[in-house]
Amino acid sequence: MSTPGQLASVTSSLIVILLVIELVRRRKLSERFSLIWLFVAGGMVVASTLGFGSLINVIAPMMGIRYPPSALVFLAILGLVALCLYFSVLISRLNEQNRILAQRMALMELQVARRDDRNREEEQPGRDLQQPLSSQDRPGS
Amino acid sequence: MIRAPEDLGPEPSRLLVVVPAFNEASGIGATLDEIHNAAPQATVLVVDDGSTDTTAAVALQHGARVARLPFNLGIGGAVQTGFRHAADGPFDIAIQIDADGQHVPASIPALLQPLLSGEADVVVGSRFLDVESYRSTRPRLFGIQLLSWLAARLTRCRVRDATSGFRAYNRRAFSLLADNYPTDYPEAEALVLMSRAGLRVREVGVAMRPRVFGRSSIGRFRSIHYMFKVMFAMIISVLRKPLRFREDRPS
Predict the structure, then answer these.
(1) Residue B214: pLDDT band by 50, 70, 90 thresholds?
(2) B-chain residues within 8 Å CB-CB of A106?
(3) Contact B199/B173 with Cβ under 8 angstroms?
(4) A100 in contact with B at a CB cutoff of 8 Å?
(5) What pLDDT score was predicted for residue B241?
(6) Do residues B34 and B63 touch, judged by C-beta distance below 8 A?
(7) Closest CA relative to residue A9, chosen from A67, A69, A65
(8) What percent of chain B has pLDDT over 90?
(9) Residue B5 pLDDT level (bands cut at 50, 70, 90)
C-alpha cells in the first residue's frame, strides 16, 4: 500500500541519495561523510516503504507521546543532534591538528631562516656575528 | 641577585625567553631591550601570532629569534610554540613574558631563583606578593581571585595570581607543556594541569605595570565568557587523568 505520504518521503530520500552521489562524484564530499548521509537517506527509504508509520504508532505511546508524528519529529531531531555533535568532535580534532601544523611550520621556518643566516655568515666572514639581520634579508618576510 | 651566565651552566644559550606577540609592533622593541638588559645570556624567541603589523620585523631588529605562526592561534597556541622550541633545543629553562610591557623584565632573576635552587619546577610571577606592582582594575581583580580560589580548591596549588602569564619553567615542566597546553586563555588551567602532574609550583613577587601599548586581548563581555570557559575547563581537567611525563612511561 502506498500513500501520498510514503511517496513524498521515498522521493525526498532518493533526492538526498542522488545529491550525495553527485557531490562525491564532483569531489565536493569525501566518501567518509557520504556514507553517513547515504545511510540516513537509505534508512528513510526503508522506513517509509516498510511502513515505519505503524511502528511509530506503537513507539509513541511507549514514550508517552499522544500524537505519533511528533514522536517521529522528536526522534529525527535527536538523530540530527547526534550528527551535529559528531561534526563538532571532528571540527575540534581538525582544529587541534591545524594548531600543531601551524606551530611546527613556524618553528621549521625559523630553523631554515637561521640556517640561511649561518650560511651567509660563512660566505661573508667580514660581517659582525652579533648584528641581527634586518627583515629584508630574511627569506619569506 | 644571581650571577646569570655561570648559574645557568657553561652554555650561554640555556635560557629561552618566550615572548608571545600579536600586533605589538609599537611596544615590543622596548620590551625586548629590557629583556636583554635583565638577562643578556638568554636566547629570546618572539612568537608572532599572525600579526598584521610589523611585529616580526621589529623583533628581528632587536635581535630576537622570530617564529611566525601562519595565522592567529591565540595566546595558548603561541606560548606552546615557544615550549616546543625550548623542548627541541638545548634549553634548561624557559621564561614566558608578555610583549606589551606589563611584565617588568627586571624581575626575571627573581623568577629564576626557585628554579636554580631546585625548589620548584614552575615559578609564577605574582603581582600580589610584596613587590610593588600594578594590581589591575577591580573587575579583573575579582576574576583573578576567583580563578585562583578555584585552582586552590581543585588542586593543592596555592597561587594567588593564577592568570599571570609571567612564568618560568624548568625542562621537565616545559617539555610536558610542549605537548599539552590549553588553547584559548590557558594560564589558570595550566596551573591545574601542572599541579596535578606533580610539578612543584611556586609563586614569587614580580613587578607589573599597567599596559603602555596596545589594548587588552579580552574585552568586557568576552571576559565574562572567558571566566566561564576557563572555570569549566579547569573543572573538566580535574576529571581527566593527570598528565604523565614521557620518561615515566614504560617503554
Answers:
(1) low
(2) 47, 67-70, 81
(3) yes
(4) no
(5) 85
(6) no
(7) A69
(8) 63
(9) very low
Backbone angles phi, psi at B53, to 5 degrees: -105, -160
Q: Which residues pair with B124 in a beta bridge?
A: B167, B203
* Mean pLDDT of the residues in chain B: 87
- How far B68 CA sits from the closest chain A CA (Å)? 5
Query: pLDDT tens across A24-53, in order?
Result: 889 888 888 888 888 888 887 777 777 666
Please judge whether A106 and B57 are an interchain contact, meaning their C-beta atoms are less than 8 angstroms apart.
Answer: no
Q: What is the pLDDT of residues A96-139, one digit of tens each?
A: 999 999 999 999 999 999 999 889 888 876 545 544 544 444 44
Can you read off the three cell numbers belonging to residue A20? 550525495
Q: Is the pLDDT of residue A95 over 90?
A: yes
pLDDT digits (tens, 9 = 90+) for B53-94: 999 999 999 999 999 999 999 999 999 999 999 999 999 999
Chain B residues near residue A104 by CB distance under 8 angstroms: 84
Which residues in A lie closer than 8 A to residue B184 (C-beta atoms)?
A: none
In this prediction, what percent of chain A has a pLDDT beyond 90?
Answer: 28
* Chain B hits for A130, Cβ within 8 Å: 63
CA atoms within 13 A on the CB side of B139: 8
> Per the CB < 8 Å rule, is B73 touching A104?
no
Name the residue of chain A whose CA is nearest to B70's CA: A102
The CA-atom distances, in angstroms, between B34 and each of A17, B38, B106, B138 are 64, 6, 7, 28
pTM of the predicted structure, to 2 decimals:
0.81
B85 with A110: Cβ contact below 8 A: yes
Q: In this complex, which of B66, B77, B183 lies closest to A110 when CB atoms are compared?
A: B66
Contacts of B239 (CB under 8 A, 6+ apart): none
What amino acid is encoded at B169 in this protein? Y
Task: Give buried/exposed letters for A63-102 (b at 16+ CB in 10 A, else e).
Answer: eebeebeebbeeeeeeeeeeeeeeeeeeeeeeeeeebeeb
| Pairwise CA distance, residues A60 & A99, whole Å | 46
Nearest-CA distance A88 → chain B (Å)? 17
